[in-house]
Amino acid sequence: MIIDTHAHYDDGQFDIDREELLTSMEANGITRIVNVGADMDSSRQTVALTEKYSFLYGAVGVHPNSTAELSQEKIIELKKMAQLPKIVAIGEIGLDYYWDEPEPSVQKQWFDCQMDLAREVKLPMIIHSRDAAKDTIDMMKAQKAGEIGGVIHCYSYSVEMAREYLNMGFFLGIGGVVTFKNAKTIKEVVSYAPIEALVLETDCPYLAPEPNRGKRNSSKNIPYVVQEIARLKDIDVEKVIAVTEKNARSLYPKLK
Ligand code: NI
User: Fold this and answer.
1) Which residues pair with 93 in a beta bridge?
2) pLDDT at residue 99 tops 90
3) What is the per-residue pLDDT across 184-230, written as a single tens digit (0 to 9) for each?
4) How confident is the model at residue 93 (pLDDT cuts 50, 70, 90)?
5) Residue 214 alpha carbon to ligand 1 centre in Å
6) Are the C-beta atoms of 95 and 64 separated by less than 8 Å?
7) Distance in Å, CA 8 to ligand 1 centroid
8) Separation of 145 CA from ligand 1 center, angstroms?
9) Could you tell me if 244 and 200 are in contact, meaning their C-beta atoms sit under 8 angstroms apart?
């Protein structure tokens, strides 16, 4: 069965039909969803969603572009949320120089602090890294991130960088982008990486796969991602589903 390892159902784009959509997931083969926080408010909303839906788990953390709101008190609040039984990871955290807001030094300070938090609460990390390949890997190596573990969400770097993350024991999150015709590098990465290192994700409401590119995304679109991974690796769709489910459970040990 399919596990969506990265979704944002707290997003306002789901306000009109969230209940209807989420309760239809199981009938569509989506048996587990991990909703991922991107700031303090969405982390709190994630906790509320995990309380409402049995099949929905959560991650709490602050996305690099929202780190200006962080303080030591907020880190303590994140820590309390992280200890709840259905919170399975710290994320999404990392560096994003595409939107260079706040300045890199602030992003770095809170990335490091949230890696410390993940280590302290013994949870894997969901890493968001955009246009910041070198600083991300350098900071993760300095933190010995391989001891903490986690996933590189929406993996978008080279095959060489993928090798570095695989050597650290990290999973690569594969979503709708792999279906885009011009996404040559990620197709190469999926061909190169062992299937045992890949997990499925949507990042919904963003990044809908072909043929729904540009529309609001949901976990129901994951079969398009599965088909493309199966094609690239020349294996059965059933095998992609079975192995990535096992991978997701190994990535997030608290997932029941
Ligand atoms: Ni995300």
Assistant:
1) 127
2) no
3) 999 999 999 999 999 999 999 999 999 999 999 999 999 999 999 99
4) very high
5) 16
6) yes
7) 7
8) 20
9) yes
